[in-house]
Amino acid sequence: MSDQAVVETATPSLWASLPLPSSAAEWIARAEQVAEILAEDALARDRANQAPHAEVQLLKDSGLVTLLGPAAFGGGGQEWVTALAVVRTVSRADASIGQLLGYHYLWAWAVRLVGTEPQIAAVEELYTTNTLFFGGAVNPRDGDLTISEEGEELVYNGRKSFSTGGRISDLTVLEGVLDGTETHIFVIVPTDQPGIQFAGDWDNLGQRLSESGSVVIDGVRADWASAAGFENKVYLPLTYNSLNVPLVQQIFSNIYLGIAQGAVAAAAEYTRTTTRAWPYGGDNKQEATEEFYILSGYGELQSKLWADEALIDQVDRELSAVLHAEREALTEKARGDVAVRIAAAKLRIAEDGLEAATKVFELTGARASSNKVGLDIYWRNLRTHSLHDPLPYKKREVGEYVLLGALPAPSWYT
Fold it and tell me: For the chain, which domains are there?
């Protein structure tokens, strides 16, 4: 069986005769079906490190891609609290695909974050009716793309060292600065065009199928009319526009929780079926599941993850409520209050998740370090993505909020 055989044989017939889920519980159940398929060969696909075209097709066939799309255009019409739960569910089985799906949801919502009402309607109809998948070339650590103005067209040029979604996306979000100004402009363009050149150079420790390699943008054109949030070439800002960063940070929290939950579940199954009791401790047990230190270890890890899950669930609900409220109603304080809660959730699950992904080796035994077991995939994935931005700055944001009442200032990372 080839590395991608399980995913590739998961044909649309699984769901072709079924209507889209109609409730949050049904959508999460659909995500669990997808996760079961992905889990079958997640390790083999990770090692093969091929562009996950079949995996993204699976997301499309299952309907998950249009979960947030308006029902009027054939989408699920769901809220963000459900989308975040779906990202977490998929990430338990394959965190790379969970990341791709989370970023897709982010960029699909980007037009609501910064667009005008006509732009929102046009983009949501386009991606929902055609089941299109989003990627984005908006890494803020690199220099901005440059934008030149040619009549009624904007022309983008530059390079980004990270571009999640890459070769498997149908639409790409670009961001740059207009020449001679400090004006940032977002546009959504078709991915399949000569001016977008992906290097295919993502070869990292973890999240290996997230298609996060570099991209060169060479003369990509977009109409001024598609510049998100602009009317007559003038941008009218709202506090709501700055929710993109808190939103992506909370997507991260759900990816990390999914990884940690997956690690503990996989380790527990190995302990139940394979780990042997230690015969030299003076308190010999027949089964590993009777060992005090193993029971204690799993108890500690699961207690922390339950606490993290409770916090993340609550913050998911808080953020979802903000995202689905009237855009004009969002205040700087409300934005800051939810952003600091997101910072707290992220730093907590990043640290506890890394502990879980490491501690599981102590609870499973030496033979569990075999490459064929593959427990390393959880630590590799979480360690890689949790380096996205330094946790000490999240701790500082929470500390300043508690001690000084200071709200996190909107930036590319807060």
Answer: 5-133 (1.10.540.10), 137-235 (2.40.110.10), 239-404 (1.20.140.10)
Q: How far apart are CA 9 and CA 169, in angstroms?
A: 21
11 pLDDT band (50/70/90 cuts)?
low
Q: Is the pLDDT at 3 greater than 50, yes or no? A: no
Rounded CA separation 278/260 (Å): 26
Strands (E), 69-183: 134-137, 145-150, 153-160, 171-178
Contacts of 128 by beta carbon, 8 Å cutoff, 6+ apart:
66, 69, 70, 73, 74, 75
Please spell the DSSP secondary structure of 157-175, one letter per residue. Answer: EEEES--TTGGG-SEEEEE
User: Any idea which residue has 């779906």 for tokens?
Assistant: 86
Residue 331, pLDDT > 90, answer yes
Residue 216 CA from chain centroid, whole number: 23
> What percent of the chain stands above pLDDT 90?
94
Contact 354, 379 (CB under 8 A): yes
Rounded CA gap, 276 and 239, in Å? 57
DSSP state of 242: G
Greater confidence, 295 or 13? 295
Q: How far apart are CA 86 and CA 30, in angstroms?
A: 9
